[in-house]
Design brief:
about 475 residues, alpha+beta, Alpha-Beta Plaits, 14-stranded antiparallel β-barrel, 5-stranded antiparallel β-sheet, 6 helices, about 40% strand
Amino acid sequence: MKKILYTLLIIGASISANAQQIFTSDHYQVQQYLVNPAAAGMNGSNLFLDYRKQWAGFVGAPETQIFCLDGSVNHDKIGLGLSVINDQVNILGSTGVLSTFAYRVKYGEDHFLRFGLSAGLNNNRIIFDRIVAKDPSELQLFSNNQNATSFDAAGGLLYQYQRFIFGISASNLFQQDFYYENNFSSNNLNFQNIRHYMINTQYRFNLNKGKWGIMPSFQMMTAQGVKSLFGGGVTGFYKKDVWLKLGYSHKVGYSVGLGGVLGNVIIGYSYTHSTNLVGYNQGTHDVILGLRLGGSSKQGGGYGDLKEIDDLKNKNNELYETTDILKNKNEELKKEVEQNKKDILELRKQLSELNQGGGLSEEDRLMLMKLKSEFEVDAKELDKMNKTNEKDNNVSNAKFSSYDYCVIVGAYTDMENAKIGQDILKQQFGLETTIIGKENGKYLFLCSDFFESPKEVKAEFERLKKLDIEKYIIGEPWIYKAK
């Protein structure tokens, strides 16, 4: 009886190693979410059932049932999914329930990168009920099936550019260990899931304005200690809703698949002729049935026109993203406007304080009036004046030493008030000013700019007068000419 059990375990393990412990589907091009968590919600909301019978007619051959439901929210930026996978290989069985979160990032023109993570529980079991013994009495030794459950996770990345897709995914991320009681010795039976990796890529070529299409594809699976499996295929489309696929998997076999779309219903079938175990099985059969949720066939589209659907969705999402950007900018502008209002109120308060005195005594006012009368030039006289090279050694700003004229837009007796005046003019008019000093820096003037010719300074003077700048300065603007 020990030999029977060990033989069954060896057969199950060898089949599992050949199949690599993880399920596979010939219809992953119909629903990328079957093999990559990052694809959750990529093609809208969908419900799919997949049944795969490998090496039909061979006792203990793998058999898989898959249920998956996925959709998108937040304008397709976020994908959500749920998958239930039941896999049976000889007396070894497993059932996994995983929930999925995916996120899409757009960069550049038509470039999309999706990240996905699935997490849930996986139950592995030894099903002694499937043992076939020559002596029925021996089955009494295996009265109870054994199972163990642990946490499981999978992750994936998917890149999409127009009609090109490249994906990479990993499953059994935590490489769980499962332990079972051994009725024949003190040693327990041990089973470990190893981490698996899968790469798949495809590109669709449209022909005759999209009426026909052809899509080559490639897939590879690998895991530590197990030989890599790889394969490829070519899928042809007609009128976007009917397809035929020819494929080959290295050391597995040749396959042919076909399918179509009826309204929102998708159905597909694939048959694989095995190149191993020849004569001992009737090939591999894979059937998928899908339902696109929340839209008609024209909007939801079929397997053949997913790219056209994606194009429309991407354009729609770009509009949403643009709208979001505009909303954010609008919020920023609102905050900026509110801040400007506060700044203006504060500046007006400061202006009011300056107009009420600004630190000027009667003596200071008289001195400023004297300085103004000494250096002011009437605008009407500028046209009659010639350029002069006289300089004023009392001007504190070195730049002024090479110019003859400027427009004064404020007079003060301390630096703090002068800087407040500068802030007011900058806030209200965007006017940059320079502080110059007279009488050894005791009296300060705000100068709007420096000019070499009477014509230039007159134009600046007239511009400032039109701005109604008198409301924000002490006195009126006047033209300064160096002596």
